[in-house]
Design brief:
The chain is mainly β. Among the domains are: 175 residues, Jelly Rolls; 114 residues, Jelly Rolls (Sandwich), CATH 2.60.120. Helix content is 6%, strand content 42%. The strands form six sheets. Strands 2, 3, 4, 5, 6, 7, 8 and 9 form an eight-stranded antiparallel β-sheet that branches. Strand 17 and strand 18 form a beta hairpin. It is globular.
């Protein structure tokens, strides 16, 4: 009897240990690809034409849950970057279409070079094109489908890196363009549990996670956003299965060093907290959004998915951590590095404006300098006359109370709002 009791105890401890074990940090990427052509970043990309596509402009949406409807038969859409752009990868999430997809590039729309082609069924969720890097001005996405449906989270990757863009926010986080902080602004995944299948570095780089079959109740990603961000919506594109979704915010991540001196996170800490947002995909549509009761201001976020049953695998094609912001120049020291601490010199804060880091010298292709000195102008009470931003020139632009007018070199296209804050042509969600 004694031996049976001890055996039962050992079995119980062995079964419980994986659930209660502390998580180890995943390797942090020094550089992360940034999707090219998305609205809201430094992009002038447009859809120059389409046939057989519904909501074709959603190809350029920063919201991964936005869908593009595609009819059965032949269809196509052409994206104009507005300038030569290097690309080497593209992907989308498939919502039920079946057939063939072809991606082509061109410098002038007269001659097209096929970059990659994929044949897939309606059950294939993530479709990825990978090819040798090519500099193009136009990209054509063509479908020959036996079954229509929709796609989400269409992305193009190439030469753009997240370190090239410093995303600024106003004091209340309401002004500017929608930004998915899961992919831009210096964010990095610190923890992923259970450990994703396949190439973990590639999963971190492209925010695409294939979680294996596991006894764990949740699939969890913990992000360091690089600095405190203000957010108003969360969500994901994921495997088309019923799932519950929760978001937890941390001012400081409750990590402790393990016996080897490495930082670790104890998942039991979630039991002591309430989620800041939650939602449920009851029908297994493969996407969802969660609105918090009030804006969330935090540097660390945990996204958790709880499938209704333990599937063989559960994939997250695109996490969404949404706020509003403006693109600046290179991040420099004003932006805390991923997995590190915020910079000790946060830079100058204008009247009602966002904190601008000590991001290098204005007028030299860098971000707005922390010294407040523009290129031939001064920064006094929020006025920048002739200063440069990310290689573009702000010619006579005025920043008053957080507002911004940029008449040339502007990474965004639009006019100031009536309050002088932000831009008025913010893309609307469907």
């Amino acid at each position: 009897m004694k031996h049976q009791t001890l055996l039962a105890l050992y079995i119980g401890l062995a079964a419980a240990s994986p659930l209660n074990a502390k998580w180890q940090r995943v390797p942090t990427l020094a550089d992360k690809p940034l999707a090219s052509g998305l609205k809201g970043l430094a992009s002038n990309a447009t859809i120059t034409g389409s046939a057989g596509f519904g909501r074709a402009n959603s190809l350029l949406s920063d919201d991964p849950t936005d869908h593009v409807d595609i009819a059965a038969g032949n269809s196509n859409a052409v994206i104009n970057f507005g300038k030569p752009t290097m690309i080497n990868r593209s992907a989308f999430a498939n919502d039920g279409i079946e057939g063939r997809a072809t991606l082509s590039g061109s410098s002038d729309q007269k001659g097209w070079a096929v970059l990659d082609e994929k044949v897939f069924t309606s059950s294939d969720r993530d479709i990825t094109f990978a090819f040798a890097g090519m500099q193009v001005k136009f990209v054509k996405l063509e479908f020959a489908l036996s079954k229509g449906g929709s796609i989400r989270n269409f992305q193009l990757f190439g030469g753009d890196k997240d370190k090239d863009y410093y995303v600024k926010q106003s004091k209340d986080g309401k002004d500017g363009y929608p930004v998915n902080f899961a992919g831009v602004g210096g964010s990095r995944v610190l923890y992923a549990s259970p450990k994703p299948e396949g190439d973990v570095d590639q999963a971190m780089a492209y925010n695409k996670f294939a979680f294996p079959e596991s006894d764990e109740r949740y699939r969890t990603l913990i992000y360091d956003l690089g600095q405190v961000r203000i957010m108003n919506e969360f969500g994901s594109v994921h495997s088309p299965r019923p799932v519950r979704f929760e978001v937890f915010a941390f001012e400081k991540l409750p990590e402790k060093e393990d016996w080897r001196g490495r930082l670790a996170f104890n998942p039991t800490d979630f039991q002591q907290r309430e989620p800041v947002a939650a939602a449920e995909d009851t029908r297994g549509l493969g996407y969802l959004k969660a609105k918090p009761k009030s804006t969330v201001k935090s540097r660390y976020l945990a996204l958790r998915w709880e499938p209704d049953f333990n599937p063989p695998s559960f994939g997250v094609s695109a996490p969404a951590i949404t706020g509003s912001g403006f693109a600046g120049g290179s991040p420099g020291s004003g932006q805390g590095g991923p997995g590190g601490q915020a910079a000790s010199n946060p830079g100058h804060t204008g009247n009602g404006g966002a904190s601008v880091g000590d991001a290098g010298n204005a007028g030299n292709g860098g971000g707005t300098g922390g010294g407040g000195q523009g290129n031939g102008g001064t920064q006094d009470g929020g006025t920048q006359d002739g200063g440069t931003q990310d290689g573009g020139t702000q010619d006579g632009g005025t920043q008053d109370g957080g507002g911004q007018v940029q008449s040339s070199g502007n990474p965004f296209v639009g006019s100031p709002s009536s309050s002088g804050v932000g831009l008025t042509n913010t893309p609307s969600s469907p």
